[in-house]
Amino acid sequence: MEGEVVTAITKTNTLRDYLRVLFRHKAVIITTFVTIITAVFIGSQLQTPYYTAQSMMFVTAKKRVESPYYKQMPEKPAEVIRAQSLIALSNPVMERTVRTLHLDQRPLDYEKQFSSKLKAALIDYRLRKLKAKVEAMTPEQKKEFLFRMAVKNLKENIETKMILQTGLFTIKVKDFDPEEAARIANTVSRAYVIFDLEMQLTEFQLRFGEKHSSSVQLKDNIEMMKKRLNGELLSNELEAIGPGSVKIVEQAITPRSPSTMNKPLMFALSFMLSGVLGVLFAFGFDRLEQTFKSPQDVEKYLNVPFLGSIPKRKPKDKLLIDDANPDSTRYVQSFQDLSGQIGLLMRDRNLKSILIIDAEGSGENAAVIANLGIYSSRKAGYKVLIIDADLRSPSISGLFDISNKPGLVDVLEGKVSFKDAVRHIGHNLYVLPSNKTAFNPLTLVGSSMMSDVIRKAGEEYEITFIACADLRHYTDAVILSSIVDGTVLIVNEGGVKRQVVMNAIAPLAQKKANLLGVVLNNRVYEIPDVIYKLT
After folding, report:
1. Which of 100, 188, 197, 290 is the most exposed place for a label (fewest CB within 10 A)?
2. Structure confidence by residue, pLDDT tens digits, 126-156
3. Which residues have CB under 8 Å from 58's CB, separation 6+?
4. If you write DSSP's letter for every residue of 60-121 in order, what string do you get?
């Protein structure tokens, strides 16, 4: 079992410490994992796979026809290549491509035939208003609107990239259909060559006239390129080169695989990333959580011995242990270990009375004291007295289902004797209950009568456990700590912040109380027993 009785806590983190953090924050890890995997899955469903085809262009000033037009061009300056790459994306080139391939006749939901069902539903949602708008147009308006939209979409899915220190640049086209991507890339590159030839033709005609041999040759070249404008891959590479100052040196071919990330690889990476982030978040949250989470925290921050831990009670565990409780349950065994630990301290140091204080104000010390009394009397055989000195909110009598009159208040006020107020619960267990008083509780617990009660208890009983108001909100415990043999603190795992407890127990140190140790209550054993035994 996970460290029930600990007298010396090592300061070095072990594998169990790291596993404890992971299991304690398993909800954070699982949430992180599920969130990332879900986000990646949805993202993959919303991303329609697309293909990228590329053609390569070469900018040159050399041509079979001599002309001042070419002589005036620099050899291959970066500025010219950049300008030419931008011209390739200009409206004249884009519009010629759209008209040639009838891209404006594509359905508005063209992407749906390649997308997932989730993305298809999103496309329908986005196009609902657009379709209604288009249907309300006249045929001419609709034709022009669809044409301009096709040009815009083409520009959004095409890019040029310069290859440094060369006269080359590439034209890259994205499309959901790999064959269409190659066809569009080839058409754009040839439309760009035609545009370049048309620019040259205009200059020749202005300088030399329409019948000049160079003008005629340029016209022939333009017509020849127009016949190849359909974007189909030409078997003869020389036919695709083109005769202008810009040449096609590489045609686009149909891509074999999409440009989007490989989905199995993407899920594998997200799986690893979610695991790493989940672990980082777990340790981050654990560091930010300023409560007591382990015996190491108790000794590190309170500088007080750790006496033992009491697990968080499960529904099947009764609040008070009894003979019907199987000793194998962790809840029952925790009181066996704690009773043995406190019993050793009392024998070694000749102690009779132990004040057990709730350091946080959780109100759970009464059940701890009652169970310690039950186990110490029934199992260990001690003659035990439990005194309920919590005059503000007495609860011991309710746990044992006994009357609280007469009780400690009556004894302190001189109404009954100590002996007459004590109840015999059974076996070797006795209880001195209490009720609320009309006087100031501090006056009673600090009176000589209270000291006399504790003295008499020490004479008649082997062990006396004393309950009182919590240390966080009241000073009753500080007063009582000076008239008892020893004091034990109860701190809840994951309860209030550590600094709150540290501030609460500071007055005990000032009173030089005999602080025997700390019990870590409501402890959750995160690591399964099977894994714990292996580590």
Report:
1. 290
2. 999 898 899 899 999 999 999 999 999 999 9
3. 167, 168, 246, 247, 248, 249
4. ----SS--HHHHTS-SS-HHHHHHHHHHTTSHHHHHHHHHHHTGGGS-TTGGGGGS-HHHHH
Give Cα separations from 61 to 57, 94, 100, 237, 534 (angstroms).
13, 24, 28, 20, 77
Note the pLDDT tens digit of each residue in 42-100.
Answer: 998 999 999 999 999 988 755 444 444 444 444 546 788 888 889 999 999 999 999 99
Confidence of residue 491 (pLDDT cuts 50, 70, 90): very high
Q: How far apart are CA 395 and CA 467, in angstroms?
A: 9
Q: Which amino acid is at 103?
A: L
> Per residue in 90-101, pLDDT tens?
999 999 999 999
Instruction: Flag whether pLDDT at 293 surpasses 90.
Output: no
Q: Which of 195-209, 261-275, 466-480 has the lowest mean pLDDT?
A: 195-209
The residues, any chain, with a CB within 8 Å of residue 254's CB and separated by 6 or more, are 53, 178, 179, 181, 182, 233
The secondary structure of 43-65 as a DSSP string is HHHHS---EEEEEEEEE----SS
Sequence-ordered list of residues with C-beta below 8 angstroms from that of 147, at least 6 positions apart, any chain: 95, 98, 104
Quick one: how far is CA 424 from the chain centroid?
Answer: 55
The C-alpha atoms of residue 294 and residue 526 are separated, in whole angstroms, by 11
Strand order in the sheet with 353-358: 306-311, 515-523, 486-492, 353-358, 463-467, 384-388, 429-432, 423-426
The two tokens of residue 507 are 């007055």
- Give the C-alpha separation, 78 to 183, whole Å: 28
What's the fold here for domain 50-105+136-195+222-250? Bacterial polysaccharide co-polymerase-like (3.30.1890)
Phi/psi of residue 490, nearest 5 degrees = -110, 120
Residues in the chain: 535
Domain with CATH 3.30.1890 in the chain: 50-105+136-195+222-250
* DSSP 8-state symbol, 454: H
Bridging pattern class, strands 463-467 and 384-388: parallel
CATH 3.60.20.30 fits 292-534, yes or no: no
Would you state the torsion angle of the CA atoms of residues 29, 33, 36, 38, taken in this order, to the nearest 10 degrees?
-140
Q: What backbone torsions phi and psi does residue 523 show, to the nearest 5 degrees?
A: -75, 135
Return the structure tokens found at 390.
Answer: 């919590």
Q: Which positions ≥6 away from 372 have C-beta within 8 Å? A: 335, 338, 339, 342, 356, 465
pLDDT band at 2 (very low <50, low <70, confident <90, very high): very low
Q: Helix 178-208 to helix 91-101 angle, to the nearest 10 degrees?
A: 130
pTM (2 decimals)?
A: 0.68
CA 311, chain centre distance (Å): 28
